[in-house]
């Protein structure tokens, strides 16, 4: 998952993300089929850098900042 329904549509397009709504949810989210490394490389080329990373259960979360 790379974004929620309020994410920048242009950025989601650059990442190749598709919008979906999971059964039972009343919100949409953007997802990609790329490996995390590929998504992080695309974001780096757009000026983002990783600030921190953590694991939450079986999920990995990256915090990024754009210069």
What Rg is obtained from the alpha carbons, in whole angstroms? 12 Å
Query: DSSP strand (E) fraction?
Result: 35-45%
Please report the total strand number as a whole number.
Answer: 5
- Name the CATH architecture: 2-Layer Sandwich
CATH topology, by name, is Gtp Cyclohydrolase I Feedback Regulatory Protein, Chain: K
Largest sheet: 3 strands, antiparallel
Strand order of the largest sheet: 1-3-2
Q: What structural class is derived from the secondary structure elements?
A: alpha+beta
The CATH class assignment is Alpha Beta
> Could you name the ranges where pLDDT drops below 50 across 5 or more consecutive residues?
none
CATH superfamily: GTP cyclohydrolase I feedback regulatory protein GFRP
Distance between the termini: 23 Å
Pfam families: GFRP
Subcellular location: Cytoplasm, Cytosol; Nucleus membrane
Protein name: GTP cyclohydrolase 1 feedback regulatory protein
InterPro entries: GFRP_sf, GTP_CycHdrlase_I_reg
How would you portray this structure in words?
- This protein has 67 residues and is of the alpha+beta class.
- It has one domain (3-66): Gtp Cyclohydrolase I Feedback Regulatory Protein, Chain: K (2-Layer Sandwich), CATH 3.30.1410.10.
- Helices cover 25% and strands 37% of the residues.
- The chain is built from two helices and five strands; from the N terminus they run βαββαββ.
- The protein has helices at residues 9-15, 36-45, and strands at 3-4, 18-20, 29-31, 48-56, 59-66.
- The strands form two sheets. Strands 1-3-2 form a three-stranded antiparallel β-sheet, with no helix packed on it.
- The two termini are 23 Å apart.
- The mean pLDDT is 95.
């Amino acid at each position: 998952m790379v974004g929620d329904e309020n994410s920048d549509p242009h950025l989601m397009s650059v990442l190749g993300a598709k919008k979906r709504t999971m059964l039972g949810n009343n919100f949409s989210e953007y997802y990609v089929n790329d490996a995390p490394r590929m998504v992080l490389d695309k974001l780096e080329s757009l000026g983002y850098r990783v600030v921190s990373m953590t694991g939450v259960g079986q999920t990995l979360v990256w915090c990024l900042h754009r210069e």
